[in-house]
């Protein structure tokens, strides 16, 4: 079969080697130009949105709580691909046209914002009440307490789950191929369409995703160590 | 220095403080004792407005708070500055060194000059016997050391009154002495203090007045000798009997 045919056919083996070599650079280029920027920009915007949403959830203002809940519920309750399609293919029918890349950034940011807000909310709630009281007694305002006392501690607790969010995001950016962003997976599709070596091209793309995620997990470990220096016991 | 009139605090239906009246002179140390749930912690927290009292007035260092009326954030902040709280579980900021814990109030909140504040913070660390621990994180310190940092952090705010809520009750017995010593030094220096504690030694050695609280009221008050050796109220006698055997009251 496939394996058989490869090894019984040196010419084909050579052809595969050539294709692998010539497609490697375009794939890496697409990763650097689109996959990584899309991931990083969406994650940063998403985190910002997540903190705001988490604060709205724990605020005492009912309307804010309610808005945050509805937002999180909608994002978590609908498929990411459907959200991307609504942004890119749906909105133009009501006169709102967004280019592929910005549409993807908006979609992924909204997603990270919703999922990460739950992580951050849980992390904030896990900080003992005594920390708020200590901040109170030294005269801190609410925003000072958040910035200086609560969020630094909450961010430590959040590193492992947020790293998972980021790693998932990197892989999810492959969905942007379906709204015409020429990120790595779309480039793999395009090359494969010309030479029909689907296994080779998708395999290469998978390998590069895996390497990126592996490197990210190393960064995660370092971050956790850095934060661990003040952890008790 | 402190003048409390008709202080009330309810949590919903539950009335925890049922009208507290108390006057404290500058430089006095008041020890508050009483059974669990009698409202001691709530009483201290009300003085620092960590808990908003339901009714009554409190004057500290010339500033009056009338809790029968709504208070603005600014008023609360201003009144809170008059006193500083030392907590049972220290509540140090775990992500900051001992020195940074102490600097947080003066520098971040009070916007004092950093260099000067640091000099003062180091002096405070020295005062509580921890000059070599400035760069240690809380988890690297023993409970007694953490609590002494807690005291230094409160002192750095330059409050007129220090409030202590069972500052030694979370400590191993052999660490209690070092914290009480720091508190005794403060008494001697003329700090005005309200201390919830069941440490007999401290109460006898440092208190000008002992209050016995029960069910949200001050049931009995007097010098340590009067309250401990010649209690008048039945409830006080019972409470003292209950814990007589131990070293603490
Ligand atoms: N935030 C709160 N909400 C509702 N009830 C509260 C709250 N804080 C305290 N209470 C109640 O108020 C009462 C007095 O509590 P408080 O902590 O002041 O007692 P305490 O004298 O300090 O007791 P202990 O010696 O155990 O520390 C208790 O019945 C307690 O359950
Ligand atoms: Mg208490």
TrEMBL record, chain A:
One of its GO terms (cellular component) is ATP-binding cassette (ABC) transporter complex. It comes from the Bacteria. The keyword Transmembrane helix applies. It comes from Planococcus citreus. It is a multi-pass membrane protein. Belongs to the binding-protein-dependent transport system permease family. InterPro entries: AA_ABC_transptr_permease_3TM, ArtM/GltK/GlnP/TcyL/YhdX-like, MetI-like, MetI-like_sf. Its main location: membrane. The chain crosses the membrane at residues 34-58, 70-91, 199-219. One of its GO terms (molecular function) is L-cystine transmembrane transporter activity. Residues 32-220 form the ABC transmembrane type-1 domain. Keywords: Amino-acid transport, Cell membrane, Membrane, Transmembrane, Transmembrane helix, Transport. This is Amino acid ABC transporter membrane protein (PAAT family). PROSITE patterns: ABC_TM1. Pfam families: BPD_transp_1 (PF00528). It is found in: Cell membrane.
From TrEMBL, chain B:
One of its GO terms (molecular function) is ATP binding. Keywords: ATP-binding, Cell membrane, Membrane, Nucleotide-binding, Transport. It comes from the Bacteria. It is found in: Cell membrane. One of its GO terms (cellular component) is plasma membrane. Pfam families: ABC_tran. Signal peptide: none annotated. Gene3D superfamilies: P-loop containing nucleotide triphosphate hydrolases. Residues 2-240 form the ABC transporter domain. The keyword Ribonucleoprotein does not apply. It is a peripheral membrane protein. This is Cystine transport system ATP-binding protein. It comes from Planococcus citreus.
């Amino acid at each position: 079969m496939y394996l058989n045919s490869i090894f019984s056919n040196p010419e084909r083996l050579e052809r595969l080697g050539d294709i692998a070599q010539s497609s490697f650079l375009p794939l890496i280029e697409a990763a650097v130009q689109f996959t990584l920027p899309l991931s990083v920009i969406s994650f940063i915007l998403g985190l910002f949105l997540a903190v705001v949403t988490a604060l709205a959830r724990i605020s005492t203002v009912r309307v804010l709580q309610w808005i945050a809940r509805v937002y999180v519920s909608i994002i978590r309750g609908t498929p990411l691909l459907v959200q991307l399609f609504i942004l890119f293919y749906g909105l133009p029918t009501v006169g709102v046209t967004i280019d592929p890349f910005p549409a993807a950034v908006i979609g992924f940011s909204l997603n990270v914002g919703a999922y990460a807000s739950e992580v951050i909310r849980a992390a904030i709630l896990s900080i003992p009440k005594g920390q708020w009281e200590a901040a109170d007694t030294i005269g801190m305002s609410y925003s000072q307490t958040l910035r200086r006392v609560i969020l630094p501690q909450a961010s430590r607790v959040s590193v492992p789950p947020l790293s998972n969010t980021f790693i998932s995001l990197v892989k999810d950016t492959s969905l942007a191929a379906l709204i015409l962003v020429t990120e790595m997976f779309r480039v793999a599709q395009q090359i494969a369409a010309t030479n029909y070596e689907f296994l080779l091209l998708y395999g290469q793309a998978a390998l590069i995703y895996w390497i990126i995620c592996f490197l990210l997990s190393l960064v995660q470990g370092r971050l956790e160590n850095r934060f661990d220096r003040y952890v008790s016991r | 220095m402190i003048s409390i009139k008709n202080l009330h605090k309810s949590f919903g239906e539950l009335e925890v403080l049922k009208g507290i009246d108390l006057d404290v002179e500058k430089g006095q140390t008041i020890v508050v004792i009483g059974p669990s749930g009698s409202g001691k912690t709530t009483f201290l927290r009300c003085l620092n407005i960590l808990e908003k009292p339901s009714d009554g007035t409190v004057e500290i260092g010339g500033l009056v708070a009338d809790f029968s009326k709504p208070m603005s954030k600014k008023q609360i902040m201003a009144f809170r500055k008059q006193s500083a709280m030392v907590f049972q579980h220290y509540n140090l900021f775990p992500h900051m060194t001992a020195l940074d814990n102490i600097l947080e109030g003066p520098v971040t909140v009070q916007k004092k000059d950093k260099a000067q504040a640091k000099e003062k913070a180091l002096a405070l660390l020295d005062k509580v016997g921890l000059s070599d621990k400035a760069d240690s994180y809380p988890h690297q310190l023993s409970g007694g050391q953490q609590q002494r940092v807690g005291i230094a952090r409160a002192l750095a705010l330059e409050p007129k009154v220090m409030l202590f809520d069972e500052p030694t009750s979370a400590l191993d017995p052999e660490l209690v002495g070092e914290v009480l010593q720091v508190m005794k030094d403060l008494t001697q220096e003329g700090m005005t203090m309200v201390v919830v504690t069941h440490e007999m030694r401290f109460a006898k050695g440092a208190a000008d007045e002992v209050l016995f609280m029960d069910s949200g009221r001050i049931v009995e008050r007097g010098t340590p000798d009067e309250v401990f050796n010649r209690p008048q109220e039945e409830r006080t006698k019972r409470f003292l009997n209950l814990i007589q055997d131990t070293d603490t009251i």
